[in-house]
């Protein structure tokens, strides 16, 4: 049985009624969060995204929900307070994807950086790089703890000397003097969390519509001209307010609409993902977070049975795709050796790389690491849109997306003269609603919903989708025939993948591998798996044999070009890394 994709259905709905009170351009986490917020108020709202949802800057995150301890040095106390508050809130409203993350800082000196810190605070210039010593880090963590007073969402920090540090983490560099340990939070599946945010907005009612692969390309007849990137067809959407939430591309979106702006000055951040069991074990489930000797903050992060290493902070050229370079890989390998000097790390262990551009404000000669991570909303008008109010979002990050979306929605509501009726503060997101908070509650949930798929499988699905796993279980139960694990990735099943493709706005094969599942991130892609999921997608979406082949070839090319993973020729049973 084939079906028209959810994406095609949404575009058809827009063509039939190309008007709205609010049009949001950009389907990253901030655009999606604002869409959800406005939809919950009953606002007639449309969101368009030129690629797949959450495929730009939001897909290149460090998988952290954090208060931003280093922002204290920038003097961004408001942002730190908001970030810590939102971190604690997300632990409660999105517990299926946001979890406490124990974080350890290895420290190699006692007083280093004390004289340089005030200069950095006052000027935001990097100066000569110096590692921060124990005194400075202790001061920062004490202040950081003071921002987290909501009943103990996470424990307060602790400090240990060399002996106890090496007893706990014996593979650490024996040259360290101290370790500091504190808690932030992780988001293991940021793309899936974003899809939950989108689904919440769409579930609010037919007044909320969102389409991917629909690009804002200009203005026409007082509205925004959009182009269907699959068919090339164009039509105009009119709205009272246009929200430009296109992240690092905000200036480019404004330019396409006929207005020259210079709001953005994003920096590039790259990551590598390693299959290194010894390094994974050495981390003991903790993120290692520290400052390299060039002054950059970096992390070593155990995730999904792999170890992610990041990140860089380099000036970005928006005219070329952001990809992880050879120099960045050398940098990552060197920094791991600084923390775990006896653990070999090689290029052959890299299973995936990714890179993106942070949506930071234009910053002239401010050092990239000191560019504000805060956000602002810039109102204006664009000639081709007449009296339509245009709100351009500058900045924003994953941790604060709910608060930012509330702020942006409030500005939008004021512009259209509508009162807020629903608060998103404390409102569960997607599969976080009713998520079992204790082991006994989890057992009860599995016993209640696992009859059709078995207890073990129900537990996997609960972890993967939160309480929205019930929809997947229903799809499996209604599958035509016997559901089977994927031969090339048995933790997923054919009915499960079919459900994702039919219901989650999948247009291309890459949408499945890169954002609906973790298969690419964990290095699980093989030629047989591409063909297996290609077959499921073709059956679900009615692809011709030629279209299926094109999709498989295009995805493998994207995997090689953007993520440095080259599938072997032949049967494709192994993946080798582009080096």
From TrEMBL:
Its EC number is 1.-.-.-. Residues 21-368 form the FAD dependent oxidoreductase domain. One of its GO terms (biological process) is glycerol-3-phosphate catabolic process. InterPro entries: DAO_C, DAO_C_sf, FAD-dep_OxRdtase, FAD/NAD-bd_sf, G3P_DH_FAD-dep. Residues 423-548 form the Alpha-glycerophosphate oxidase C-terminal domain. SUPFAM superfamilies: FAD/NAD(P)-binding domain. Keywords: FAD, Flavoprotein, Oxidoreductase. Belongs to the FAD-dependent glycerol-3-phosphate dehydrogenase family. PANTHER family: GLYCEROL-3-PHOSPHATE DEHYDROGENASE, GLYCEROL-3-PHOSPHATE DEHYDROGENASE, MITOCHONDRIAL. This is Glycerol-3-phosphate dehydrogenase/oxidase. It comes from Leifsonia sp. NPDC080035.
């Amino acid at each position: 049985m084939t079906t028209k994709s959810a994406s095609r259905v949404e575009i058809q709905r827009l063509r039939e009624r190309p008007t709205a009170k609010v049009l949001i351009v950009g389907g990253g986490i901030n655009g999606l969060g604002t869409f959800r917020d406005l939809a919950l108020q009953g606002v007639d709202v449309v969101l368009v995204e030129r690629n797949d949802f959450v495929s730009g800057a939001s897909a290149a995150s460090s998988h952290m929900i954090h208060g931003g301890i280093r922002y204290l040095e920038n003097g961004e106390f408001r942002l730190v307070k908001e970030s810590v508050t939102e971190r604690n809130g997300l632990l409660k409203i999105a517990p299926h994807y946001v979890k406490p993350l124990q974080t350890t800082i290895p420290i190699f000196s006692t007083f280093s950086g004390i004289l340089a810190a005030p200069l950095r605070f006052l000027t935001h210039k990097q100066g000569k790089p110096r590692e921060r010593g124990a005194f400075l880090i202790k001061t920062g963590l004490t202040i950081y703890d003071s921002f987290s007073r909501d009943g103990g969402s996470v424990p307060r920090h602790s400090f240990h000397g060399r002996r106890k540090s090496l007893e706990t983490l014996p593979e650490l560099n024996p040259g360290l003097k101290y370790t500091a340990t504190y808690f932030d939070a992780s988001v293991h599946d940021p793309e899936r969390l974003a899809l939950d945010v989108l689904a919440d907005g769409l579930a609010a009612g037919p007044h909320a519509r969102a389409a991917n692969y629909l690009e804002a390309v200009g203005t026409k007849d007082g509205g925004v001209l959009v182009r269907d990137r699959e068919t090339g067809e164009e039509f105009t959407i009119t709205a009272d307010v246009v929200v430009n939430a296109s992240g690092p591309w905000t200036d480019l979106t404004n330019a396409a609409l006929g207005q020259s702006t210079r709001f953005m000055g994003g920096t590039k951040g790259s990551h590598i993902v390693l299959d290194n069991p010894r390094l994974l074990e050495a981390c003991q489930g903790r993120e290692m977070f520290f400052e390299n000797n060039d002054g950059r903050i970096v992390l070593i992060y155990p995730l999904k049975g792999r170890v992610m290493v990041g990140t860089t902070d380099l000036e970005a050229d928006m005219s070329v795709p952001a990809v992880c370079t050879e120099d960045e890989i050398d940098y990552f390998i060197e920094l791991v050796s600084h923390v775990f000097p006896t653990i070999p790390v090689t290029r052959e262990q890299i299973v995936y790389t990714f890179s993106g551009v942070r949506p930071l404000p234009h910053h002239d000669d401010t050092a990239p690491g000191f560019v504000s991570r805060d956000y602002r909303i810039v109102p204006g008008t664009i000639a081709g849109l007449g009296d339509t109010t245009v709100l351009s979002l500058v900045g924003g990050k994953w941790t604060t997306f709910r608060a930012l979306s509330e702020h942006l929605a409030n500005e939008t509501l004021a512009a259209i003269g509508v009162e807020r009726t629903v608060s998103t503060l404390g409102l569960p997101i997607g599969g976080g609603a009713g998520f079992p908070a204790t082991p006994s509650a989890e057992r009860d949930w599995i016993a209640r919903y696992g009859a059709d798929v078995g207890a073990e499988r129900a537990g996997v699905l609960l972890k993967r989708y939160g309480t929205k796993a019930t929809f997947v279980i229903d799809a499996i139960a209604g599958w035509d025939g016997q559901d089977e694990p994927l031969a090339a990735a048995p933790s997923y099943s054919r009915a499960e993948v079919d459900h994702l493709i039919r219901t989650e706005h999948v247009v291309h094969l890459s949408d499945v591998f890169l954002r609906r599942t973790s298969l690419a991130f964990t290095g699980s892609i093989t030629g047989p798996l591409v063909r297996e999921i290609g077959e499921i997608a073709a059956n679900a979406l009615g692809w011709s044999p030629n279209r299926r082949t094109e999709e498989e070839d295009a995805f493998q090319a994207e995997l090689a070009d953007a993520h440095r993973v080259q599938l072997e020729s032949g049967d494709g049973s192994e993946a080798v890394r582009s080096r």
